[in-house]
Design goal:
2 domains, 7 helices, 71% helix, Tetraspanin/Peripherin, Tetraspanin_CS, transmembrane helix, Tetraspanin
């Protein structure tokens, strides 16, 4: 019965290791997604330390892949030392993922203040004639999130670009996508997106951070299951009479 129980746990552990390999790929994907999306919104969010959770999640994904290989070798060879190492490394990764969750919540709470601090400066630096990176970022965000201005399209009236152009118009990126004849003129406000971009940028960045938090929580739970299976296999292995006699220098017939 004990042998059957150990075999069952070993089988479950092997299945977990395959799941761990898949988890490694998913975690790396989540981290890469955060980096790519951050690149689109980085002008509205100056605190680069917000990327720390994404960096950690990619590092954890890479480490999980290596851990999976170690665990496979240890399970196939039924190495007690290998399984113990596997459990210890999993525990360290589990702690790291808890840190990711904590950092994710901290930076998620800071998003609104960061965006509010930088967004006015970005809009004031807009140059529609010869757009630089910041100007392209504004046009991208307004088209992507279907918004106009900081709180609404009237915010453009206070920008340097609006005062210089003197044509009573906002950028064409404020025009509703369904309209082909929109010129951005404030005399036709119904042609423009009515919602401001600040709230939508904050929402988008907070959603991105939640992806990291939920990914870390999900795989932390999976790792707990793996550590439990590995510990059971270790305990059963240490109680194996053949193993105990071998350690004592005896024989087992």
């Amino acid at each position: 019965l004990a042998e059957e129980g150990r075999a069952w746990c070993s089988k479950e552990l092997t299945m977990f290791l395959w799941l761990l390999q898949a988890a490694a790929g998913i975690l790396c994907y989540v981290g890469a997604y955060v980096f790519i999306t951050y690149d689109d919104y980085d002008h509205f969010f100056e605190d680069v330390y917000t990327l720390i959770p994404a960096v950690i999640i990619i590092a954890v994904g890479t480490l999980l892949f290596i851990i999976g290989l170690i665990g496979c070798c240890a399970t196939i060879r039924e190495s007690r030392c290998g399984l113990a190492t596997f459990v210890i490394i999993l525990l360290l990764v589990f702690i790291t993922e808890v840190v990711v969750v904590v950092l994710g919540y901290i930076y998620r709470a800071k998003v609104e203040d960061e965006v509010d601090h930088s967004i006015r400066k970005v809009y004031n630096g807009y140059n529609g004639t010869n757009p630089d990176a910041a100007s392209r970022a504004i046009d991208y965000v307004q088209r992507q999130l279907r918004c106009c201005g900081i709180h609404n399209y009237s915010d453009w009236e206070n920008t340097v670009w609006f005062k210089q152009t003197k044509n009573n118009s906002v950028p064409l990126s404020c025009c509703k996508a369904a309209l082909s004849n929109c010129t951005g003129s404030l005399t036709h406000p119904m042609d423009l997106y009515s919602e401001g971009c600040e709230a939508l940028v904050v929402k988008k960045l907070q959603e991105i951070m939640m992806y990291v938090i939920w990914a870390a929580l999900a795989f932390a739970a999976i790792q707990l299951l793996g550590m439990l299976c590995a510990c059971i296999v270790l305990c059963r292995r240490s109680r194996d009479p053949a193993y105990e006699l071998l350690i004592a220098g005896g024989t087992y017939a």
